[in-house]
From TrEMBL:
InterPro entries: Ketoacyl_synth_N, PKS_NRPS_Biosynth_Enz, Thiolase-like. One of its GO terms (molecular function) is fatty acid synthase activity. GO terms for biological process: fatty acid biosynthetic process. Keywords: Phosphopantetheine, Phosphoprotein. Residues 3-137 form the Beta-ketoacyl synthase-like N-terminal domain. This is Beta-ketoacyl synthase-like N-terminal domain-containing protein. The keyword Phosphoprotein applies. Gene3D superfamilies: 3.40.47.10. It comes from Prymnesium polylepis. The keyword tRNA-binding does not apply.
Length: 138
């Protein structure tokens, strides 16, 4: 967005076969593996089961707060609402496709919340200790 350019790039071959998906380009976010779990009070195991969209909600939600000159401590426990729009459960589908039947028997306890987009607003509210309404709209 800052560059005001076209973010679409050819799909990496490791992601999917462009010819089979009939989609040869996509706008993909790089660097999601650099997420600071400790900063948000998350364990490494929880982050492994977390949809990258939820990581972005946490990072960008905190960034918006910080850029507005508000500080985390100033809002802690206050009636602040979090309303986000989130869609496409690509991560959840990718996990199902790439996980073997034996691995499914060892599904993480964090998968239920980590793979669902509708918990993203609540996750940000919890991480920042915000007490207002939390609504994820798809």
């Amino acid at each position: 967005l800052q560059a005001a350019g076209d973010a679409a790039r050819p799909v990496p071959s490791a992601r999917w076969v462009p010819q089979a998906a009939m989609c040869g380009a996509a706008a993909m976010v790089a660097g999601l593996q650099r997420f600071d779990a400790r900063f948000f009070g998350l364990s490494p195991a929880e982050v492994l089961s977390m949809d990258p969209q939820q990581r972005l909600v946490l990072e960008l939600g905190y960034d918006a707060l910080h850029r507005s000159s508000l500080r985390r401590g100033a809002l802690r426990g206050r009636e602040v609402g979090v309303h986000i729009a989130i869609e496409h459960l690509d991560w959840q589908l990718l996990q199902l496709v790439t996980t073997s039947a034996t691995a499914l028997q060892r599904v993480s306890a964090y998968a239920a919340s980590g793979e669902q987009g509708h918990v993203a607003a609540g996750r940000l509210s919890f991480a920042l200790d915000l007490q207002g309404p939390s609504i994820s709209i798809n």
